[in-house]
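Tutorial sheet, problem 5. The two components below are modelled jointly, 692 residues in total.
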Amino acid sequence: MKRSAMIVIGLLGVLLTVSLQAAEAPTVDEIIERANLAAYYAGDDGRAEVIMTITDAQGRTRKREFVILRRDVVDGGQQQFYVYFKKPSDVRKMVFMVHKYIDKDDDRWLYLPALDLVKRIVATDKRTSFVGSHFLYEDVSGRSVKEDIHELVETTADYYVLKNTPKDPAGVEFSYYTVWVDKQNFMLVKAEYHDKDGRKYREVESLEIKNIQGFPTVVKARVRDLASGGATVSVFKNIKYNIGLKDRIFTERYLRRPPREVRK
Amino acid sequence: MSRPCLISIFIFIILVPAVFPMAVNASPLQDRLYDKYGVDLNGFIEGRQGWRLRDDPYEKDSSISEMRMQLDVSKDADWGVIKLKGDLVGDQVEEKAYAELRELNFAFSPLDFMDLKIGRQTLTWGTGDLLFINDLFPKDWQSFFIGRDDEYLKAPSDAIKGSLFFDLFDIDLIYSPVFNASRYVDGTRLSYWNSMLGRRAGQDFIFTDHERNSYFKDSEFAARVSKNITGIELGLYGYSGFWKTPEGLDSKEAKLWYPRLSAYGASARGALWGGIGNLEIGYYDSRDDRDGDDALVRNSEIRTLAGFERELASDFTGGFQYYQEWMQKYDSYKSTLPAGTAPKDEVRHVFTLRLTKLLMNQNLRLSLFTYYSPSDQDGYIRPKIHYKVTDQWAMEVGANIFAGKDDYTFFGQFQDNTNAHAGVRWSF
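Model answer (structure tokens):
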């Protein structure tokens, strides 16, 4: 009796540990899902002021300053973005607006104030440079989790390390990329991109993460082009979540007349 | 070397370096204005020089030679935005210095669902790329053809714009108490086909017009109803006013005039085949020649446009458009045409092609825009290279190449004006 009780307790103990481990070790899909939400869907909406410093291979720098508004239509799904440029002078007051979809190409608009022109822009290739920086459109608005096959390759003390292989290799310039996801808050800490020859050529890092209104938030990020030597650093300031952005801000009306949320 | 050319070399070598430190110092002034009064000050200083690539007996050798400073001042307050934008220009071709007020307006939202913009402003709508059907706001074709920045294709309007936003659709209403004409090619800077002389003319025959300048009588009214249905943008348009270029000829006084015009149209734009597609149509009702039997006033027309743009490779886009002008009452037009005048075609077909390639972190832009008309057998090519040297400095080289079989077609008449230009701009 004593012995069988011991076995039962022992078995229970094993089961408990196993199930505890299961709770601690989420599946690959769960990691990806939570990382995607943490990186791109904090709150229902948000606002940030961004200063991008672009350094080319020769060491010359250029700066972009803009205010970005984001609104989630569906958490983890459809989103709206509004980017209002402040600097440099030649792009000042231009507005870039995106309606991001999961199952079809995004809708993108550009407003050119000098001509009062609302331009529709082509959005097929999401892996092109965002405003001439080393960040790509996809880094800004997020790459759909459905586009890659994800594998958990390593679990370190602090990170989940995942390898992501594109389902459509012809549509992208990388053969795979590896991401480091913080086990505590599911923030994306680093991503390394490998080209078709397997060489690492691009690195995206979160240099500083702060807690803002309870949401872990990247306040400084860097992309390095390891092949050419250029890099872009983005610093995010005055970040606010859940400011109650209305759907209508993301329409032609507010392209022509920027809302108060970005003008200040 | 011609005199204007020497003068512009002087401008580049002496004046630009002189102005440069001034512009560098603009930054603390900008900061002070903003901190103290909440006033934004921006602008640019630019030099542009162009040369004709063909001999034109009627015009000067230099197609453009100017220094320009633009100042853009705005005050953004809780109750609205006041904006002033103006240019100071030293023009070597016309040998004059002048100031041009491009914008002076007040924009505010008196109601939650209403925006108003009152004053001098730039107005644009419609879906065409450098082709306009329902956009009957003033253009400056002369600036476009001599190689000024694209911004100058749009001439300002003095107007009141009211916009109403409803759940079902949006409405824009624009009223101009007095007619805002386009700046057409009149011979001052570009030679053109002169139908009275039956030959090309330029400075020897500068076409003037009977201005439409009486307030309220010569007013214009434009309206648009628009709706975005899941990414497909639809528009309905109406216009009541005058032909924007003087499409009437007063043969007694040898002056042009602006016949009355009403226009009605529609447009659609949305994602298509991995790119952007657009369609636009407009009916131009030439109210002073509805029967089409006045040979000196342009007939009514139906204008149609279909376009498609897509990415061809990374940072490389291509756009294609087909456009047509279909003259109404063509038989009346033909039967009343003065003897010896070459008749226009009933339908004018135009194709356009735009190619844009971005290089060097998008700081170098190579672009090409081409118009080609198989019916007129003429064309117009606009190649351009734009390089952002720094965030402040930009350089541009471009050309305006006109070709045509005949001297009297739309682009063909400008053949001798083929030009190349270069410019440097400092933005602050």
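Marking note: Chain A touches chain B at residues 54, 56, 60, 62-63, 87-90, 92, 99, 104-105, 107, 114-118, 120-125, 127-129, 131-133, 230, 248, 251-253, 256-257, 263 (CB under 8 Å). Full credit if you identified this.
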